[in-house]
Structure formats: structure tokens, C-alpha cells
Design brief:
The complex is a heterodimer of chains A (402) and B (224). Chain A is an alpha+beta fold and 402 residues long. Chain A is built from 14 helices and 10 strands. Chain A folds into 2 domains: 184 residues, no CATH class; 189 residues, no CATH class. Chain A is 56% helix and 17% strand. The longest helix of chain A is centred in the last third of the chain and has 44 residues. Chain B is 35% helix and 29% strand. The chains are: A alpha+beta (402), B alpha/beta (224). The structure holds adenosine-5'-triphosphate (ATP) and magnesium ion.
């Protein structure tokens, strides 16, 4: 009952001084918002990065058409095509897995169901590289690819998108961009990686896709899977040599393709974000402590302002403990409310950023709980002194206070 | 019930020492109704604060119910103020943001009374002082007389042994002042011990005993 009374009194006191309370807790608000936003953005970015990296132990180099103009003589860009991938695959000095991809959205029909879906054309090796597992039927193989067979393996969500069951769909013919394809396999549920959802994709052999569906020999990108123990620089040099030769790029001319090493990139990024996060968290911590000093200051003012009230409460039988409790609860509440506002604000910033960059949005629960606890502790710590000052007031003198 | 032996009180005002009480000897029995009179600055409030356990004397002994008060610790004093003593202050001293009901509830909250029982008792006592239709009004929505009655209800709600009232009629017109005095007389007839501070002869005459204080000393002590 005493605690409830303290809480009610604290709420009424904070409400009747709402502007002052807001200004007092501003540092707490900013501190908490910064912690939530920075830690949340850091982990979102990392998740997005991880999602784009092959998580199968080894590393994946990513080759895509493009050019870094450095002012040198440039030729037009020659797109990467299946021949380039084959040339890389033929090169046996390295033990690498070459996986070119073409993906586009196409209309998919089965009976009445008509959906626009992502179609990916891959080599059979792709399932291996990604670690996708089969639920029903079989995967396509090299024969299907070379024979440009009209076969398709579908992600786990496709049957329901086509308003049918997995067992039902197996061995059925579906229409992809108007042509009939046989469903030979259905994958297990893989879960979204953030960028794209493998469960909602249809997989066809690369050559089938190139010839029958997309009508192009150009690939979006070539993934080069390598094991962790090889020398990445050497691999990159080999790729460069082969592709430059194929694209007939003379000395002094720029590459018309880019090779990215995401894992290396991410290591650096992770390190950088780690340091950055630590830095901001430290600043936010300082901000919270400064906020705590502000709260203490205002609580001291509040104690002085309410000297008569304290005197009265003591005259009515409030003990030392009861008065302490009242003012500590008020200080803690002030900080926790500030913390909660900051939390909402930080989450909002995080959400905006994640949406803007198309990163997976995940609430940093640890940071949320941690920062609220920390603000409560700040309130507790900086509330003790004003509360003791209040509790020690002499009742007779306090009642005379004007 | 109350025994004061050579009570002195000094205040330090900068370099100066103010002797507010210079040796008070006084006994008050249960069920008495005492008026304390005296000019401004004579030490009436100081005396009430000491007898009400709000303040401690500089020297002398004060026994409350045969207990030497100076031997009690902070928490025991708080408990006595809560249970044994009811204060009605000159300037009401209600919590401005709380309703009449909440103001009356306050002493019971510090006593740890069960909330339902406390609410019931608060409502009953507010009815006794004629405010049953004002329980949810804040002090700013009440007249001076009504505020004083809330203060009286609050002072009585824990059934104190002694009721102190510091100029309870000082801020009221004579009609409402009379109402308050009638209430006090009724309470006293029911057995309530009351110590009242007043400037007004008419008010003092309505009690059973008048004590005159001047310059921190008892000048006269008359039974009516
Ligand atoms: N806390 C204090 N500090 C300093 N001086 C005080 C204090 N309390 C009372 N005094 C002084 O002690 C003397 C007695 O004060 P007290 O308040 O008891 O008078 P009073 O009889 O109640 O007067 P009034 O009728 O005006 O209320 C006064 O001179 C006053 O200034
Ligand atoms: Mg006085």
C-alpha cells in the first residue's frame, strides 16, 4: 500500500511538472534511443550481410558484370554469360565450384492458380552450395541441364501458393511463362535469409532457363565457391585472367566485371561496427549518467519545493523509510519513463533504417532490457541522495517552510 | 497522560538564540479539553510541536502515557504521530493534488490499514463532518470551512488519543468557526482529549481549561 501510494504520488508529481520532467529525462531519452538504435542497426546490418553470404563453412566469391572506371581506356561492358562460367569451370587448377545464376519473375500457373513468382535457373551444384534439402521427389541433375529438360524443383511454400498440397503437386505439369514444366522435386523449408526467400522460388536447370524461359545466355552473377584454406588472392587472379581473356580486355583496360569477397568484407565490417557500437554505447552510457545527475538535481529542487508536504506527511506518521521510498520511486519512475520513451524512439529509428536499407528488422531485446534496467539503476542511484535529504527533514521546521 | 517537566526550547537564528519556551510545567489528563492562549510569538506552536512529537525540547522531560519521549527513536515517534496524535493545522495543510478522500486516507496508508477498510472508514468520518457529497473534490474545489473539516476528519481517522488544533478557527468566519467548535465539544463529550490553540477569548471559553502563555512561560492555568 505504501509502495502504491509512492507510485501514485510520483505519477502525480511528474504529471504536474510534465515539461520539467520531460526536459529532465531528455538525456535519458537520448541515451536509451541511441543504445537501441545503434545496437539494433548494427545487428540488423550484420544479419543482412550474413544472409547474403554463403553460410556453408566455405567462402563464396561473387562475380558480377560491372566496371570501376578509373579514368583508363574503357571498352563497353560485355555481360557475363554461360560461356564465361563454363570457362571457369573448365579451369581445373583450383578446386572451386562455379555456380552461375539467372533469376527473373515469371507467371506460374496450375489450374486456376496464377502467381507471379521468382524463377531461378541454376546448375545442379547450386543445391549443394546452398545446402538446400529435398522433401519430396528428386533434384535436377547434369543430364536435365544438358538436355534442357522442362523440369522444375520448387520451394516449400510453392504448393500452397498454387493452392495445392506438396504430394499433389509432385509430378504435375505446371505452366511457367506459358510453357509446361514437370515438378520433379519439392524442397524442405529453408527459412528466409532476409534478402530473398528460398521457399518461394522455383528452380530450373540453367540451360533450360537460358534457352526456354529467359532467352538469354547472360547470367546475373557467377558464384565461386571455395574452401576456407585456399589463397583467395590467387583465386581472384585466376578468375581475372580467365575472364579478361574471354572478354578480350587488353592491357591497361579496366575489368568489365567485379569480384567481391563478401566474407572478407563482412569480417572488416563486423569489426568496424563492433568498435562503432562500443563507442556509441559508451557515449550513451555517459549520457545516461549525465541524465541521472540531471534527475538528481531536479529531485533536490523537488524536495525543497515540497518541504511542507514532507513535513505534513511526517506529521501524519510517515516514517523515514516511507519518505525515502516516495522520492526514490519518483526518481526511478522519471528515469524509466525516459528510458521507455527513448526505447520507442530508438526502435522507430531502427525500423526506419532497416526499412530504408531493406535489412531484416529484429528488436535488440538484450539492449532493450539492458538499457531500461540501466536507467532504473541510474534513477535509483541518483535518487538516493535527494530521498535521504527529504527523509531527514525536521517535521516542525518543514511545516513552517514557506 | 501528558506530563511536561521544565521544558525549554531554544532556536538558533544566525548568531542569536531565541528562547521560545523557558520552562514549561504542565499536566494534561485524558478526556481534557484545553485551550492555549497567548500573544503571537509566545511559544504556543512550539509547545504544540513538542507535545505532538513533531519537535524535541532543548531540555526538560516529556512523558507521554508514562513514556519518556526523548528515549524514543525516529520510527517510534512516527508511529506515535500516526496512531496517538491528530493534528489540525492553522493553514489546513491538505495535499493540493489529492481529493478529500485521499487526504483522509493518508494517515491510514502510513498505518498500513487494509485499503478497503481504510476507504470505508474515511468515507464514514467524512460523513461525520458533513462532507459525504464532497469526498472526490480537491482542496481547491472546497471552501475554507470544508477544507478545515477535511483536515479534522484526517486528524481523527486513526482514532488518536490526543487531538491538537492550532488556531482551527483562525481562517474561518464566525459561523463556520462555531460549527468547528461544536464538533470539538461533541468529540470531547465522547471522550476525545483535545488541545486547542487560539487567540480568541470566545473560543477558549468553550473549552474546559484555559492556559495562558507569555514569553515562553505559563502565566495562568484556569479550569472553567
Ligand atoms: N524553527 C524556528 N526557528 C527559529 N525560531 C523559531 C522557530 N520556531 C519558532 N521560532 C520562534 O520562537 C518563538 C515562538 O514561536 P511560536 O511559533 O511558538 O509562536 P506562536 O505562539 O505560535 O505565535 P503565533 O500566535 O503567531 O502562531 C517566536 O519568536 C518564533 O520566531
Ligand atoms: Mg503559532
Amino acid at each position: 500500500m505504501l509502495f502504491k501510494e509512492s507510485l501514485i504520488s510520483a505519477i502525480s508529481s511528474i504529471r504536474s511538472n510534465s515539461i520539467r520532467s520531460f526536459l529532465t529525462s531528455l538525456a535519458i531519452i537520448i541515451g536509451t534511443a541511441a543504445v537501441i538504435a545503434v545496437i539494433g542497426i548494427g545487428s540488423s546490418a550484420e544479419k543482412a550481410l550474413e544472409a547474403s553470404i554463403d553460410d556453408l563453412g566455405g567462402r563464396t566469391l561473387y562475380v558480377a558484370p560491372g566496371q570501376n572506371r578509373r579514368g583508363a581506356v574503357t571498352k563497353g561492358i560485355i555481360p557475363l554469360d554461360i560461356k564465361d562460367a563454363e570457362a571457369l569451370a573448365k579451369f581445373k587448377n583450383h578446386n572451386w565450384e562455379i555456380s552461375p545464376t539467372i533469376t527473373r519473375n515469371r507467371q506460374v500457373k496450375l489450374g486456376n492458380a496464377n502467381i507471379n513468382q521468382r524463377i531461378g535457373a541454376y546448375l545442379p551444384i547450386h543445391f549443394d552450395v546452398r545446402g538446400y534439402e529435398l522433401e519430396l521427389g528428386r533434384l535436377f541433375n547434369e543430364d536435365d541441364n544438358l538436355g534442357r529438360k522442362r523440369v522444375v524443383v520448387v520451394g516449400s511454400k510453392i504448393p500452397s501458393e498454387l493452392k495445392t498440397g506438396a504430394k499433389n503437386l509432385l509430378n504435375k505439369e505446371i505452366l511457367i511463362a506459358g510453357t509446361s514444366y514437370k515438378v520433379i522435386g519439392i524442397l524442405k523449408e529453408e527459412g528466409s535469409t532476409g534478402w530473398q526467400n528460398p521457399d518461394e522460388e522455383l528452380y530450373i536447370p540453367l540451360l533450360t532457363g537460358a534457352q526456354r524461359v529467359f532467352g538469354t545466355q547472360n547470367v546475373d552473377s557467377i558464384n565461386v565457391g571455395i574452401s576456407n584454406d585456399v589463397n583467395v588472392d590467387e583465386i581472384m587472379m585466376s578468375i581475372e585472367q580467365i575472364l579478361r581473356a574471354k572478354h578480350d580486355i587488353g592491357p591497361g583496360q579496366d575489368n568489365d566485371f567485379r569480384i567481391s569477397d563478401y566474407s572478407q568484407f563482412s569480417d572488416l565490417r563486423r569489426q568496424a561496427t563492433g568498435i562503432f557500437t562500443l563507442l556509441i554505447a559508451a557515449i550513451a552510457g555517459i549520457s545516461l549518467v549525465v541524465g541521472g545527475i540531471g534527475v538528481m538535481n531536479i529531485m533536490l529542487v523537488s524536495v525543497t519545493e515540497r518541504t511542507r508536504e514532507i513535513g505534513l506527511r511526517k506529521a501524519l506518521g510517515a516514517t523515514h523509510k516511507a519518505i525515502m521510498l516516495q522520492f526514490i520511486v519518483e526518481a526511478v519512475l522519471l528515469c524509466v519513463i525516459g528510458g521507455l520513451i527513448g526505447l520507442a524512439f530508438g526502435t522507430f529509428i531502427l525500423w526506419i533504417t532497416a526499412t530504408l536499407f531493406d535489412w531484416p528488422f529484429a528488436l535488440p531485446f538484450g539492449a532493450m532490457v539492458g538499457s531500461i534496467t540501466f536507467s532504473a539503476l541510474v534513477g535509483l542511484f541518483f535518487g538516493i541522495w535527494p530521498a535521504r535529504k527529504a527523509a531527514k527533514l525536521d517535521p516542525a521546521t518543514s511545516l513552517r517552510y514557506e | 497522560m501528558i506530563i511536561l517537566k521544565d521544558i525549554k526550547k531554544e532556536f538558533q537564528l544566525g548568531q542569536q538564540k531565541v528562547k521560545a519556551l523557558k520552562g514549561i510545567n504542565l499536566e494534561v489528563d485524558k478526556n481534557d479539553f484545553v485551550s492555549i492562549m497567548g500573544p503571537s510569538g509566545s511559544g504556543k506552536t512550539t509547545l504544540m510541536n513538542i507535545v505532538g512529537c513533531l519537535d524535541t525540547p532543548s531540555s526538560g522531560n516529556y512523558y507521554l502515557n508514562n513514556q519518556l519521549v526523548s528515549e524514543l527513536d525516529e520510527d517510534s515517534l512516527a508511529r506515535i504521530r500516526n496512531k496517538e496524535i491528530g493534528f489540525v493545522f492553522q493553514s489546513f495543510h491538505l495535499l493540493a493534488k489529492n481529493s478529500a478522500l485521499d487526504n483522509v486516507l493518508l494517515p491510514m496508508k502510513y498505518a498500513g490499514t487494509d485499503i478497503n477498510e481504510a476507504t470505508e472508514r474515511a468515507k464514514y468520518i467524512l460523513e461525520q463532518v458533513g462532507l459525504s457529497d464532497r469526498i472526490n473534490h480537491g482542496p481547491s474545489e472546497l471552501s475554507g470551512g470544508q477544507q478545515q473539516r477535511v483536515a479534522i476528519a484526517r486528524a481523527l481517522v486513526n482514532k488518536p488519543s490526543i487531538l491538537f488544533a492550532d488556531e482551527p478557527t483562525g481562517n474561518l468566519d464566525s459561523k463556520t468557526g462555531d460549527d468547528v467548535m461544536n464538533l470539538f465539544k461533541e468529540l470531547n463529550e465522547e471522550g476525545q482529549t483535545i488541545i486547542l490553540i487560539t487567540h480568541e477569548e470566545d473560543i477558549a471559553k468553550q473549552s474546559r481549561r484555559i492556559i495562558n502563555i507569555k514569553d515562553g512561560l505559563i502565566e495562568s492555568d484556569t479550569k472553567i
